[in-house]
Design goal:
The chain has 334 residues and is mostly beta strands. The protein is built from two helices and 27 strands. 3% of the residues lie in helices and 46% in strands.
Length: 334
């Protein structure tokens, strides 16, 4: 497990803290907006003795209304995909293996399977929703080099869009956004030169992708062509003034509002699609002392119940809050 612990997991939810090459502009922000209080749903994991940490990621709601989360640093034999009953807080393991470090979970609108990004090998794997029938969907090499995949989002046709940290070396901006056809046979790099891209999410109309860059604390917008196979324009849209915190995963609601998770602070920054800071999702102050990061969120499609994964020395938790607008399919994890 030395390799897994040493990973930190470097990236994943973003253990890197150095700024990558290239300055970023800093638009004026409007403070932190209103406070959106989150409440505890479940204490899911404790710190693993063999890895020295726990890190929950990838929240996604299944058809049966259970919440699946991944534990990125779970050692061999301990649950790596976990099912949480959001009504009672009870949880159980769904899947484990010896070597995987799974940084996100998503459900394909094409085949209904759970897709997991595996940081260490670079692969994307899929499971039946009960955790059986593991398949390697995509082995991980794109343009001659392996991915370090973090987050994933599907378009309505079932094609995948993956944020690729691509080594995540300090001071370098080699990250990529990769598109993989729904059959796993073809992969193309949509964008490169990114500073540790973590979150990736469509806007509600699926015209373009929001991408958060961990090492620059920015959210960029990539406008896509009609087939969603090429980027037609790209610009920095939001600078997140996070202080010690950095931009982790990202989600949207039906109104196009952005929910930006923060690595280094158990909170989420909420922005309008035009960059206005609308609010900050926060856990209670007492709980925040034992937590370090909010990594991701799933908003219930057709409802406002949102579930975010939060981790730190106190363990891995799921917290809930009320989103500013209804969720859609795209809101359900990332």
């Amino acid at each position: 497990m030395a390799g897994l612990a040493g990973l930190c997991l470097l990236a994943l939810a973003g253990c890197g803290t150095e700024t990558a090459a290239g300055p970023a502009s800093r638009p004026v922000t409007s403070g932190e907006g209103r406070v959106i209080r989150a409440t505890q749903v479940s204490h899911v994991t404790d710190v693993h003795a063999s890895t020295g940490m726990t890190l929950l990621e990838g929240p996604v709601l299944t058809r049966k209304g259970r919440l699946y989360v991944t534990d990125v640093t779970a050692p061999p034999g301990e649950p790596k995909l976990i099912s949480v009953d959001v009504g009672t807080g009870r949880h159980k393991g769904v899947y484990t293996d010896r070597n995987g470090a799974y940084t996100s979970a998503q459900i394909s609108p094409y085949d209904g399977r759970v897709y997991l990004t595996e940081y260490q090998s670079g692969a994307v794997v899929s499971l039946a929703q009960d955790g059986s029938d593991r398949r390697t969907f995509f082995p991980g090499e794109v343009d001659g080099s392996a991915m370090n995949p973090d987050d994933i989002v599907f378009d309505d046709a079932g094609n995948l869009y993956v944020s690729d940290l691509h080594g995540m070396e300090t001071g370098r901006a080699d990250g990529r956004i990769v598109r993989i056809d729904r059959d796993g046979r073809k992969a193309v790099v949509l964008a490169d030169g990114l500073a540790h891209p973590n979150g990736v999410m469509f806007d509600p109309e699926q015209h373009g992708l929001w991408v958060s860059e961990l090492a620059r604390n920015t959210v960029s917008y990539l406008l896509l062509d009609a087939e969603r196979t090429a980027v037609t324009s790209r610009h920095e849209a939001i600078h997140v003034d996070g202080g010690l915190a950095q931009t982790d995963s990202i989600s949207v609601d039906a109104d196009g509002n952005l929910y930006q998770a923060l690595h280094g602070r158990p909170a989420m920054a909420v922005f309008s699609k035009y960059g206005q800071r609308l609010g900050t999702v926060e856990v209670p102050a007492g709980a925040a002392k034992g937590l370090r990061s909010a990594t991701n969120v799933a908003i219930t499609p057709g409802g406002r119940s949102a579930y975010m994964t939060v981790s730190g020395p106190a363990g891995g938790y799921v917290y809930s809050f009320e989103a500013l607008a209804d969720g859609i399919r795209l809101s359900n994890g990332g």
